[in-house]
Structures are given as structure tokens and as C-alpha cells.
Amino acid sequence: MPASSSNTARAIAAAAASPAAPTMSAGLIVITLSLLLGIQPVTTDLYLPALPALTESFAAPMHHAQLTLSALLLAFGCSQLIWGPLSDRFGRRPILLCGLVAYTLASAASTLSPSMDLLIAWRIAQGAAMGAVVMGARAIVRDLYLPADGARIMSRGLTGLGMLACLSAPLGGLLSQFFGWRAALAALAVFGACTLALVALRFKETLQHKNPLALRPATLLGTWLMILRHPTFLAFSALSATSYAGLFTFLAASSFVFIQVLGLSRARYGLLMFSMSAFYVLGTFLCRRLLPRFGVRRAVALAAGLTLSGGTLMGVLAWAGVTSVWAIMLPFYVFMLGHGVHQPCGQSGAVGPFPQAAGAASAMNGFLMMLLAFGMGGWLGTHMDGTVLPLTNGVWFWSICIALTAWTLVRKHGEPAPVAALTP
User: Fold this and answer.
1) CA nearest 75: which of 98, 57, 99, 54?
2) Pair 233, 50: CB distance under 8 Å
3) Which end of the chain, N or C, is less packed with Cβ atoms under 10 Å?
4) Which of 165, 170, 164 minimizes the C-alpha distance to 270?
5) What integer is the mean pLDDT of 400-408?
6) Roughly how many angstroms between the first and final C-alpha of the chain, as a whole number?
7) pTM of this structure
């Protein structure tokens, strides 16, 4: 290992052998995490019912409509590579405040966009700002909790995320149906302002030891190399990235499939999204039941059985010509139960080995997740063919990838390494 990587690893290990003592109540921490993590599904799910109407309003091709989602997610992923080291240097609170201010302003501007090109530009700005918020939430978990406890607290925060996701699509459907698609985008600015108020008034800094060297090029390069070489990080990042890619496939294609191919109203589509998110919430509860009994690796392996069963059933039914709403949704409910286990375990497990580089590790994990989602969005933009197959084949493919990851990489490298193991 190069000397810069070795020195960085030793500095990280020495600086933060144990998490900081929480200075906020457990309830406030969970509520804050729910809002910070929930900004992602709110930003993506709430406007999905409005996507076909938005596309028609601007007379734009479908691949431009897909860019309002996939470009947002690429900006979200890339920006975390900047926000992560900044938060390790200056702390979580100032980065969260900057991100939430920028997100609220970009959301308001996107509501007033006169063209599809400007809307895409403002969605990119939204995604970049959102990167600070979600990255900060994941880093906060590592600041305050050891990896095993982090998976449980992350599952509680993701339960709140799921509840917000449950409300987002139905609310977006109602707003777009009765007030137009701009009302759905305006709701994002309201959510950003409310979250900003909570962080500004109640959130206290969680980073115990700021790293004054975090932004130096040599230190930054050494940190990235150390993270990317760590087998536990790679295993859990592969799990969280493939699991999110399966969900993103559904999110990016479902509004066109259900509304334009299967003929659902926007309100009914919103209710379907509500039910999908409800099963995700159940999955996070399942996660908290499985972890104490089986540990991380076995919990992830059991959930992968659900994921593969749901994805395979959806794919087989579609290829057999069964293309009803419930032939897609019932298997996807099973997929989402597994997703509710994989995301808290994957996100907390990837950051777990890096207590003093939690921002950088969270950023890299988020970047890999969004990079995979962006690639899938690009594929869907050119393969949506007026049938359900791009959606069902995509979910089936990712369910296989998730199961292989859970049963190989996570099984071999899935237990978070102790801090001492970071020092070569």
C-alpha cells in the first residue's frame, strides 16, 4: 500500500476509535434521519405521477423526460464525492444547511421552468444539493453508532423514509391531477424548507473529530484508495447499489407502464406507489427482527431469497404474456420486502469500517448507487417500447445480481471490520 494511503488509514483509526455520545434525543435523531434520508424518495416519487403530463406539456421525447430523473440522480451521486470530504473537514451541520438551502431554491426554480431543458438543469441542481443531505444522514449514523447498532438505527430512519415515500406518490397524483404538474414540483420546495427549519433549529453537530487534512489532495486520494480497496465496503456497496438499481428500474418505468400501457389514472397509480412503499416499510421492520437473531450476513442472505423470488416471478409472468397490474405489483411487493433489509444493512455496512472518514465513505457508496441508477435510466430511455417488458426484465435482472451479491460477496466480507483492522 502507498505511504499516503497507509498514513491516512492510521490517522483515521487513531482519531475515532469509538462513536460520539449523542447530544440529541433518540427520537429527534430518528425524525431527523427520516427527513434527511426521505428527501430522496420525495424528490423522485412525488413527481412521478406528473411525468407523463409534464412530457406532454413540453412536447418532449420520452428520453428527455427520463433525464429529469436520471440526470438528477447522476448529479446526486457525483456531488456526494465533494460533499463527503467537506463534511469530514467542516462537520455535518454546515454542509446540511448549505445543501438544504440550495435544494429549496432549486425546487422553487424548477416549478417555474418554461422549458424541458431548464427543468432538467434545475433538477440537476436539485440532485447536487440533495447529495449533501443524504450523504450527511448516512455519515451521522456512523458518527453516533457502531456498525451493528448503525444498521438498526438506519432501519428506523429508513422506516421513516418509507412512510414519506408512501405519501409522496399519492400526493403527487392528487396534486398533478387537480392542480397540474407544477404543483407536484412546488411541494418539493415546501418539504425542503420544512427540513431546513428542523436542522437549523434542532440539529446539533455529531462529528466528534473534524479532519483538518480531509481536503488535501494527497489525503483525499489516500482516503478514496483506502475505501475502494476495503472488501467490506465493496461488498456492502455492491448490495446497496444493485438493490437500489432494481428499485430505480421500477420508479423510472412504472409511470409510463401503468398510466400509458395499462391505462391507470394518475391517482390510482399514486395509490399503487403507496402500497409499494408500504411493503418497503414492512421490510425495514423485518430487518430489525432479523438482525438480532441472525446477524447481518444471514439477514441479507434470507432477504435475497425474497428478492430473487419476486423478481423471477415478475419476469416469468411477463414473458408468459400475463401483463396485468397485479402480475407486476404482487411480485414487486416481495422484492420490496427484501429491499427493506438490504438498504439499511448495505448503507450502514459500507460506512461502518471508516469512523473518521464516514463522509467520504458515505459519498462513495452513494456515488456508486447513483452511477448504476443513471446507467439503467439511460438504458430505459432508449428501450421503452410500449410493453411491460423493459420494467419486468430490468427488475428480474437486478434481483439476480442482488442475490449473487448477498450470497457471495456479503457472505465472505460482510461483517464490518474492527477499527484496528484499518491500520495496515
Assistant:
1) 99
2) no
3) C
4) 170
5) 96
6) 8
7) 0.77
Greater pLDDT, 314 or 421: 314
Residue the block writes with cell 473537514: 89
Separation in Å, CA 372 to CA 171, 180, 369: 28, 31, 5
Banded pLDDT at 127 (limits 50, 70, 90): very high
The answer on pLDDT for 13 being more than 60 is: no
Nearest to 360 by CA among 135, 177, 204: 135
18 burial level (CB within 10 Å; 0-12, 13-18, 19+): exposed
Q: What are the DSSP calls for 9-22, one per residue?
A: HHHHHHH-SSPPPP
* Residue corresponding to grid cell 472488501: 231
**Selection from 95, 189, 192 nearest residue 138 by Cα:** 95
Report H helices in 180-265: 181-202, 217-229, 231-255
Average pLDDT for residues 181-200, to the nearest whole number? 93
**Which of 125, 12, 141, 137 is closest to 78 using CA atoms?**
125
CA atoms within 13 A on the CB side of 5: 12
Residue of 307, 34, 285, 256 whose CA lies nearest to 167 = 34
